[in-house]
Amino acid sequence: MKPWWREGSQILNSVGVVAEFTKIEDAIEFERIYHLAEEAEDLSRKTKKLEAKLEVFAGKLFDITEDEEYVKEYVTDTTAIEASARRNLVEGFVDEEAMFADGLDECLIGAARIFNRTVPLYCLDSVKRKTLRDFRRSQSGAPFDPEDDLESDVDEYVEFNILGAYVGEHTPAFAIMIKDEID
Fold first, then answer.
1. Distance, CA of 160 to CA of 174 (rounded, Å)
2. How far from 154 is each of 1, 20, 75, 136, CA to CA, in Å?
3. d(CA 67, CA 63)
């Protein structure tokens, strides 16, 4: 079995951060963040299972009620409840002054320690997927133009309005996950 600090440094390396411990306090803080990352991964796995069950349930509910709007509202409420639970979990680890990105609670994956502060950590891929979903919802009913490059628009929007939105030293951090690329 590998020591926890090696496992932890590999996990942090997967988001582009190299762990280097010069003090025992840093190692203890890293261990706390490592366990938070494990909890976030577990929550993500549970979320995927819940989403699959929810899709089945929503299908059955739709058959019973034949009311599509009711089903959409129910699914949205469930997502909001889970996002709220994620935020509550992360709030216990970040600084009081830490800023959360509006409307992106479902993309939270943990907390990031940057110098002497701890801020919320979001998955950049999840942020882009959510933004793309939101863009598509806002265009519902609009004629489809195959020449529109919606993903490019989303990338530009996220780059400028989310990643480029510096609100001081307590600005949230965004992780670029490379684990899937390596496997």
1. 14
2. 42, 35, 24, 10
3. 8
